[in-house]
């Protein structure tokens, strides 16, 4: 067959129902691996689905989630950075494929927040602005999306944790004027709502405990850390990590 004609046939085939079914099957297998707390295998399956259907928002968003989950568990800084960037890239494509999907915007906000940890101050401010925008887009589409609530709670907390000089510099010289809207009240309220909506997810409780500690609600922070440590419910691949972090932070709590 002529090479050009061959490419044309492949392009037509890739849009056929059979290929779509293959992509859906791979996404389902990725879901099974993710449910079994194997984000590496899940990511492989989602990437295979994306290779068949590059505009599959579901596969793209889930690939972002698995990449970030896997990166969080690593101690190899370079591999971690690469996976966070991959998570960001997949999430951007998910939003492009379906901008009306709250889950896609949440995955973007989450991936951007993680990717920001590996860049310089100037770029980190740009990431912070984009994280807030993506989180707000997710909440506009789904007002009680627990992940988006968490992202916005932590956005407020992380900005408030900046030193006065860092915040002034970011707002004055780096285009981060929106950072001035951050406040502890919103940090607490967003995270408390995330816990109310999704109480079994340890990451919500872990970060709420940290914010309680920041605002000198020590008894609430202690109780929240203890609830993370005592939990026997596992919903995320990194739950064991979150429990270790809760134990470490509880020991430092004053």
Topology:
Elements: H1 3-14, H2 17-35, H3 39-52, H4 57-72, H5 77-97, H6 102-115, H7 121-141, H8 146-160, H9 164-173, H10 184-197, H11 202-214, H12 218-230, H13 239-252
Helix pairs in contact: 2-3, 2-4, 3-4, 4-5, 4-6, 5-6, 6-7, 7-8, 8-10, 8-11, 10-11, 11-12, 11-13, 12-13
Protein architecture, described:
This protein has a domain at 1-107: Serine Threonine Protein Phosphatase 5, Tetratricopeptide repeat, CATH 1.25.40.10. The chain has 13 helices and no strands. The model is unreliable at 3-18 (pLDDT under 50). The protein is globular, with a radius of gyration of 20 Å. With 254 residues, the chain is an all-alpha fold. 77% of the residues lie in helices and 0% in strands. The chain has helices at residues 3-14, 17-35, 39-52, 57-72, 77-97, 102-115, 121-141, 146-160, 164-173, 184-197, 202-214, 218-230, 239-252. Helix 2 (17-35) runs antiparallel to helix 3 (39-52), helix 8 packs antiparallel against helix 10 (184-197) and helix 10 (184-197) packs antiparallel against helix 11 (202-214).
What would you say about this model in short?
The chain is mostly helical and 254 residues long. The protein has helices at 3-14, 17-35, 39-52, 57-72, 77-97, 102-115, 121-141, 146-160, 164-173, 184-197, 202-214, 218-230, 239-252.
Quickly count the helices.
Answer: 13
CATH topology of the domain at 1-107: Serine Threonine Protein Phosphatase 5, Tetratricopeptide repeat
Q: Termini separation (Å)?
A: 74 Å
> What order do the helices and strands follow?
HHHHHHHHHHHHH
Shape: globular
Largest sheet: none
Q: Which structural category fits the helices and strands? A: mainly alpha
Q: Which CATH-level-2 architecture of the domain at 1-107? A: Alpha Horseshoe
CATH homologous superfamily heading of the domain at 1-107: Tetratricopeptide repeat domain
Q: Count of DSSP E strands?
A: 0
Helix content: over 70%
Mean pLDDT: 89
**What percentage of the residues does DSSP assign to strands (E)?**
under 5%
For the record, the CATH class of the domain at 1-107 is Mainly Alpha
Low-confidence stretches: 3-18
Radius of gyration: 20 Å
């Amino acid at each position: 067959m002529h090479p050009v004609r061959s490419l044309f046939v492949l392009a037509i085939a890739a849009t056929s129902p059979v290929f779509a079914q293959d992509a859906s099957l791979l996404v389902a297998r990725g879901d099974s691996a993710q449910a079994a707390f194997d984000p590496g295998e899940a990511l492989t399956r989602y990437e295979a689905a994306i290779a068949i259907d590059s505009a599959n928002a579901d596969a793209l968003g889930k690939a972002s989630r698995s990449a970030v989950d896997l990166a969080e568990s690593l101690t190899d800084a370079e591999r971690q950075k690469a996976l966070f960037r991959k998570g960001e890239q997949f999430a951007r494509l998910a939003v492009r494929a379906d901008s009306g999907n709250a889950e896609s915007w949440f995955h973007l906000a989450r991936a951007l927040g993680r990717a920001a940890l590996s860049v310089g101050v100037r770029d980190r401010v740009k990431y912070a602005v984009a994280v807030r925008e993506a989180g707000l887009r997710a909440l506009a589409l789904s007002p009680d999306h627990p992940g988006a609530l968490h992202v916005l709670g932590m956005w407020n907390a992380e900005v408030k944790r900046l030193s006065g000089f860092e915040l002034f510099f970011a707002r004055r010289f780096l285009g981060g004027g929106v950072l001035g809207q951050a406040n502890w009240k919103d940090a607490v309220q967003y995270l408390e709502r995330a816990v109310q909506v999704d109480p079994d997810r340890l990451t919500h409780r872990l970060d709420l405990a940290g914010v309680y500690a920041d605002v000198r609600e020590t008894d609430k922070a202690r109780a929240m850390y203890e609830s993370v440590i005592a939990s026997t419910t596992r919903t995320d691949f990194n739950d064991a990590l979150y429990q270790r972090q809760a134990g470490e932070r509880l020991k430092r709590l004053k």
